[in-house]
Task: structure prediction
Amino acid sequence: MTLLDETLVQKVLRRALARGGDFAEIFVEEKATFSASLEDSLVEELASGTSRGAGIRVRFGDTTGFAHTADLSEAGLNRAIEAASSLARGSTSRAAEVAVTPRVFVPLSHDKAVPGSVAKDRKIELLRRLDTAGRGQGAAIRQVNAGYSDSLRRFLVANSDGVFVEEEQVRTRLSISCIALGDTGMQTGYETAAMTMGFELFEEVDVDELAARAANRAIQKLSARPTPSGPMPVVLAGQGGGVLFHEACGHGLEADHILKASSVYAGRVGETVASPLVTLVDDGTVSNQWGTYSHDDEGNPAGRNVLIENGVLSDYMWDSTQGSRERRASSGNGRRQSYAHLPMVRMTNTYLMPGQQSPDEIIADTERGIYVAKLGGGQVNTATGDFVFGMTEAYLIENGQITAPLRDANLIGNGPEVLANIDAVADDFAIIPGTCGKDGQSVPVGCGQPTVRITQVTVGGTAGA
Amino acid sequence: MPDLIEIGKSVVGQAAAGEEIEAYVVWERETSIRVYQASVESLTSAESSGIGIRVIRGNRVGVSYAGTLEKAEIERALAEARDNSRFASEDPHSGIASPDGVEAPALDLWRGDILTTPTASKIELAMELERAVKAKDSRIRSLNSSNYGDVSVEGAVVNSAGIASYTQQTYCWLWAYALAGTEDETQTGYGMHASRDVAGLDLGFAAAEAAEKATRMLGATKPASGLFTVILEPDIASSLLAIVASTLSAEAVQKGRSIFAGRLGEQVASTLVTLVDDPGDPRFFSASPYDDEGLASRRNVLLEGGTLKGYLYDSYTARKDGTTSTGSAIRGGIAGSTTPGPRATMALPGESSPEQILAEAGDCYLIQSISGIHSGVNPISGDFSVGAEGIRVRGGELAEPVKEFTISSNLQKMLLDVRAVGNDLTFRPGGTAGLTLAIGNVNVSGT
Result:
């Protein structure tokens, strides 16, 4: 079933360019979501619903007009066209030229267990298992909050350059947050499993182990000591998530920041911007990862894009708007939260390529520092390059050994400086799911890395270093 | 524009015997204009609407939503909510709100000029803002963007217990993000002004703020680590107070994830801190006569002279504690769940001006921006560690700019370490007002 009739799609694009303009696009989306949560060992609330609508974009020079509507009738679309094309002007109407090519339809590539076909009680059962397994880790666990969610997103995108793509994406996510209580107060442990696939995710994920990891993290932190304060060597575990690279350079390599010269990486292609151990890739094609898709939200195929190779900046990430300014193709990084949002340059799965050393070797070679087993979120100011990222499970390294657990804290650094300070990269590797926020829009992404060491980064704890 | 109350009634009217239904209906219009280098980068205009439906059958809750007000979709959502309720745990306290006789404050939160001002005039405001920021200081290199935005929202909550509330609000804002510097250095700063109506926008205020924040950071270096008093500018204090208020939600307390559980009557903050949540105060852009369950807004005192006075309840958490709702139900949109939480929080202003606070603190840091609040503040353990930028204060005078450091403490400790509360109460979009706060014994981590 197509989301919008092909002749109506053609009509919309012609009408959108009737006043002039260089480019017109219609994006029609239907998204069904389901979620359930458990806390206090009670299944609290199942919530589900559907939204459907269209976003229409008309570009005239450097100006983009955008309007969205939930009314997919011809009249409803016409009102959106009117608003989106209100700023377009000029005699060069391209309306006559509009001809979309035969559509490309990408059905679900992983349709073993589409969410709607799975009984709700099977989803609930996962929450109860998390609760039992989490509480089973010890009496210190006083609260378990478990969440399940899935979504089926279908979209159609067609534009005046001839693109006509329909795609289906299914995503499934399970998360658990545990609270442990001890003499030192409360501590938390969080874990999540999330992939671009259906319920078959749970053929791969060990739900009990996921719960045990979250619960033990909370219990472990009850004996955590205050984290040191000041600059010191930091080893980031390969299983810990690659949020460092997402913040330290990922955002700064998005072409919208580059073209506005609001990134420390602007104008630096071909230059050394990192240690030679750093090869950074953004890859929307890694099978089933949280940031994976076949086509981006502008209808361009996802790509595997090498951003930094052996420390040298090779390219930025592009969407069609920024690409058109530089007369180059999109790299498949044009994404939007929903039909009600304008697409912009976004990351997919961003990761550092593994190196040669073993993780144990790197730790043993670190006399004193911090070992971050699990990273939290982060934030960056792309214009200054300053960024922070959190640690949610960390330990002291003393004489090459992992020792006392530490309380949660943020670390702060400057992108190019921290990238230059990477002096060891291990041969392990993992990609972790996350949610990336930019200009008020959230999209699913993956962050990956092997175990790495930074010779010096500032740790924001409360104890003297 | 459809009658939202009527749509709600048509849904809850279908409640079967022993069934409770609540409908939350919204209709929203928005404009968003982004200007870059004297041309419109993007213009977004849209109307959107939707409904969230909550059904309680046999003490089990089910929820559904539709991103449209089409009849067929509303019916589908109702059926889906009923089906979802079959799978929830039985909970004797579950249910919708009942009318409680409290009268809603009369609030006038709607200004027609948001809808009648031509788009061209709104574009001109964003253009003028860009010019004004650049004109303030030759060191302003460019603006990342200069923005005008507005929203007008109408909403209704109707339930089968007899509640039928209607609310409407407008507001608009100007927002600029400036880059200052030279070839070798870039610093950033934002400026904003918000108003209920277009006529009330103060463009000069937003322009001056963006220019000052960006240029005063030029030459910033990383400071030395140590224990200091930090002075939080109003926006930063607002972020901190929002987190504190969220821990006073009865839900967090009942589920054992609040550091303030079981501590009513205790001195949990400095005597300088009185915290109230008052959504009936029209100075808040989040003000509304009713909460998201349709109960009247009321003024709730959370901390008084540092003593913990109360928590924020919706009808569910109130039944669980054998008390009454404080009119604090909040809902994360049509697809969000209903929980109790802060809606319009402020610390009552003190006597001192920001300048007096700086002078009294002497040797300290003024914090103008923080980062990593999601990764660095854990409201359950209380651990607090965020990235910061600001100005070093020496002898009560602003000295050199500083950046790339963290400030760390613990939420509970920070409340007790409040040294001064400013008289500069400021309201911006969001549910928490800001004012200058001085907090002692904070770890600064730099070099």
